[in-house]
Amino acid sequence: MKFFYTLGLGILGLCLLCPVYTYATHVRAGEITTRRLSPTSLTYEITLTAYFDEQNGRLASDGQGFVPFCFGDGTTQEVPRSVRQPIGFGSSLNIYRVTHTFSGPGTYTIGVQIINRNENTKNLPPASASISFYVSTTIVINPALQINSTPVMLNPPLDSARVGQRFCHNPAAFDIDGDSLAYRLSVPKDAPGNPCISRNYPNYQNPTQYSRTSESGGPASFSINASTGELCWDAPGEEGQYNFAFIVEEWRNGVLIGEITRDMQIIVVDQPNRRPQIQPLAELCVEAGTLINQTITATDPDGHRVIITAFGGPFNTGPDNQPLPNGQLVPPAYARLLNGGIVQNQPAQATFSWQTNCNQLRDEPYDITLKVTDVPPRPIAGLVSFQTLRIRLIGPAVQGLTARPTAQASRRAVLLNWQAYTCGAQGTQLIVYRKEGCDPDNIPPCTTGAPPGYVEVARLPQSATTYTDTAALRRGIGYAYRIVARYPGANGGFSVASTQQCLELPLLAPVITQVTVDSTGSPTSRPAGQITVRWSRPLGLQPGDLGGPYQYRLLRAEGLTGTAFTPVATINTSLAPGAADTVFVDRTAGLNTQAQAYRYQLEFYYTSNGQLTRLDATEPASSVRLSVTAGQRQLSLSWQASVPWSNQNQTHRIYRSRTGPNGPFNLIAEVAVQGPASFTFVDTGSDTFAQDGLSSGPLSADSSYCYRVLTRGRYADARLAGFGLLENYSQIQCASPIDSTRPCAPALRVDSLDCASLSPESLCNQTSFVNRLTWQLQAAPNCDVGVVRYRIYYARYEQDELRRLDSVAAPGALYEHGGLSTVAGCYQVSAVSRRGLESALSNRVCVDACPALVLPNVFTPNGDGKNDVFAPLRCARFVESVELEVFNRWGARVYRGSGAVLSWDGRSSSGEELSSGLYYYQVRVRYAVVDRNAPPQVLKGWVQLIRDGVSMR
Question: What are the Polar residues biased-composition ranges (predicted)?
């Protein structure tokens, strides 16, 4: 069954902290809490705790016998008042409680509207008495949450504050389930029109609008501590009545599972009084069963007497200072505040006394909210201050843990025993943890759960006092064990870990000392694969301990962690010193060291009653497996092995061959291995070991490089230190680097015409042209000079995209682009490497033509073959098209024609011969230049047409 632990404030104390005057009518504060009644049904007890103004709202309070509950599932109910209790100076505590069954899992917001708030609340303008009061609570019903209840707020929401002084309030929220609580500010709500639909009151004014500067001189503030729930206003600037709201969030395993809104009211007075103080307290951490006696000291700067009160889960009283109803209690009451709740001269003291027990264990700490109220002379209002005493209650460690080696079903085992564990509620489990190695037993105080490095191996009922661990234990390895209690419930938490128990399993079996690859090959290759395996004689086996003859059986499995072992050799031995019976060269059929690693295990047999009987087997040990990954002008090596010794904290050697798998291999590097990520090496071509010859040089993508790695290791067990350094070679692995380096880009030059130096006769009658391209490779640090070909790109016009025209084999650096009707065009060149990578394009070079056109001023179309047409003088250059218009002396157009050349025979457009005389012309000429959009040249002039048999020479 689940219970609520709460603490209330004595009626006397609560009365003293109320102001000496109150305002009128009705609701001052309140909140809704819920409690699930059974884990097998969805029935909840829902409680509204409301605080009414009885001085000026007595009639409204009298009439508030029922309030409507909205359950968030579409149903409502009028709920009667079950408690109406005066709490002094015009206020009452009112409780409305109902049970409600929800239809299924989901998220439900339970709300209550009461009409109306009391009047004269300054920050709820224009008239707070006309505003309805609304609070809500949201719960999540989820089978995974099991039984769950909302937190309860143990400190009533009615306090006094003084103008100019920092005011703080703490709701003393407590969650019986041990869920985490978080706090945030909200806004008072009303529910106009529909009691089930609320809104933030639109005219709410933040208290900082009625503030002075803070006590420290900084800007005014109004905030809530998200962890402790302490709400502070620093500092009120006007006396009067104020309401504000905040939300308590309930979290479990990082998931929000509910929230409660508290709407509260304070009275700010402007009187000569300073708030009292509680001496700060450090967080406590104690084991369950400890008696806590914590002294609390309070003072008042004005010398007034004070009252010390406390709220928190370890108390069994509610806000009315009365015991909680049956079903919410954990009898007996187990915490008291000695000398609390009475008026004392200051410095005043009270003792928080709590006899803790194992039923109270949980993961979340307990927060004890301490409150001090001063008692000034009337009519001055009392002021309050808060402190939080945080207590972590942890479970004691399992006692009497022992560990000893044993055997179970012919398997190695460790037998654990411990004393019966009695702490924790029903459902407490004991978790057995194990790790390899035995470190000093240094756990920081107040640390629960298993220390780092331990892994869970078993989970047992609380009643268990023994456990046998048989899970893949290895000879010669030290093991440490601890036991931790896990308490029931989602937030039950863990106990302190037991003292660790360390042991090593005794060595009776041989120990493998080497698995090295002698040659790399497959069943069809030459040489074939070969692995040498070495081992020790049985350790700890004394002459006469067991009967002979003896036998070794060597087993092999494929892969680094293979377990499908099959026999590869049987070796009879007499255990005679010096006998060559602890080595085996594996060259059996099917061995493929090129494709995979192999794992070996050795069994040792003795003779019992004439039968060979297995004594034990070694820990399996694999060959070293090397892999090589190609990178940019480099090769990355990584290797691994599954062996019973440690290859950590050793220097491994890297060997490389530039001539193939048959070597020779040069030592090029040593790698200091410190952790799993250190079994790597990146080869960029260097070689720093001169003893066997230096083989440094860049790695080429056109070559293959072969590697093998020599690993080094030692057994961690001091009993095996005599085996010294264990060296093993990997297989040979070959690879080629990649090279995505682009070739260096060429710098291009194109021979072009010098238009200024051309004579009128230059290029006369030439119709075919050649452009001559030359270039030079521009070497740079990050480009490849190994070029095998150059590509030529060309575009006729500068506006066009260049397209591949041709290519030239390296090392040529000349290209002649011939058969052109004009020299105009644009060029670029790129370089291509052996791997087909192309460089960036060279600079873009555009060349242009040198156009020219000169017209005569007389021609004689008389058929004598001389000057019969009106055509350009000398040599026109790079003319692409011509348009001619001819006009007589009166401005009438007599001829119009166009073509690739200019040639007018003196006839009109209709073909009639024109008479001799002076004619005017306009010529539009387009030239074959590099600019596609170049405008035409317009030539205007006159020409004398002469017939009558005159010949022009």
Answer: 200-219
Q: Answer for the pair 726, 690: CB distance below 8 angstroms, yes or no.
A: no
Sheet holding 858-859, edge to edge: 858-859, 937-945, 917-927, 879-887, 893-899
Beta carbons within 10 angstroms of residue 107's beta carbon: 13
Query: Domain spanning 858-945 has what CATH number?
Result: 2.60.40
Report the 3 state secondary structure along 260-297.
EEEEEEEEEECCCCCCCEECCCCCEEEECCCEEEEEEE
* The pLDDT value given to residue 404: 86
Asked, colleague to colleague, whether 746-847 and 858-945 share their fold, the answer is yes
Q: Which two tokens stand for residue 840?
A: 């960036």
Inter-residue contact 265 to 245 (CB < 8 Å): no
Residue 319: band (very low, low, confident or very high) from pLDDT cuts 50, 70, 90? low
Residue 892 sits at φ, ψ, to 5 deg, of -85, 135
The model scores a pTM over 0.85 = no
**At which residue do the structure tokens 């003088």 appear?**
873
User: Dihedral, CA atoms, 782, 783, 786, 788, nearest 10 degrees?
Assistant: 170
Paired with 389 in beta bridges are 368
Nearest residue to 808 (alpha-carbon basis) of 748, 879, 739: 748
Two structure tokens written together for 479 = 């093991």
- In this structure, the chain runs to a length of 953
Q: What are phi and psi of 924, to 5 degrees?
A: -110, 115
Architecture label for domain 402-504: Sandwich (2.60)
d(CA 396, CA 423): 7
Q: Report yes or no: 509 and 538 within 8 Å, Cβ to Cβ.
A: yes
Enumerate the domain spans of the chain: 19-153+175-208+240-269, 402-504, 522-620, 625-735, 746-847, 858-945
Contacts for 911 with CB less than 8 Å, ≥ 6 apart: none
> Using CA of residue 780, residue 782, residue 785, residue 790, what is the dihedral sign?
negative
Residues 110 and 69: beta-carbon distance below 8 Å: yes
pLDDT value for 254? 87
- Terminal-residue alpha carbon distance, the chain: 133
CA gap 240, 252 in Å, rounded: 40
Q: Which two tokens stand for residue 177?
A: 């389930």
C-beta separation of 480 from 401 below 8 A: no
Distance from C-alpha of 481 to C-alpha of 169, rounded to nearest angstrom: 48
Report whether pLDDT(252) > 70.
yes
| CA–CA gap between residue 224 and residue 264 (Å, rounded) | 14
Architecture of domain 522-620: Sandwich (2.60)
b/e sequence 648-665, b meaning 16+ C-beta within 10 Å: eebebbbbbbbeebeeeb
b/e burial code for range 880-898 (CB count within 10 A of at least 16 → b): bebbbbbebeeeeebbeee
Q: Residue 925 burial by CB count (10 A; 0-12/13-18/19+): exposed, middle or buried?
A: buried
Q: What is the pLDDT of residue 411?
A: 62
The 10s digit of each residue's pLDDT in 814-868 is: 999 999 999 999 999 999 998 889 999 999 999 999 998 899 999 999 888 889 9
The whole-angstrom distance between residue 710's C-alpha and the CA centroid of its chain comes to 38
Spatial contact of 814 and 773, defined as CB atoms under 8 Å apart: yes
In angstroms, rounded to a whole number, what is the distance separating the alpha carbons of residues 927 and 931?
10
Query: What is the fold, at CATH topology level, of the domain defined by 625-735?
Result: Immunoglobulin-like (2.60.40)
Instruction: Give the H/E segment covering residue 849.
Output: none
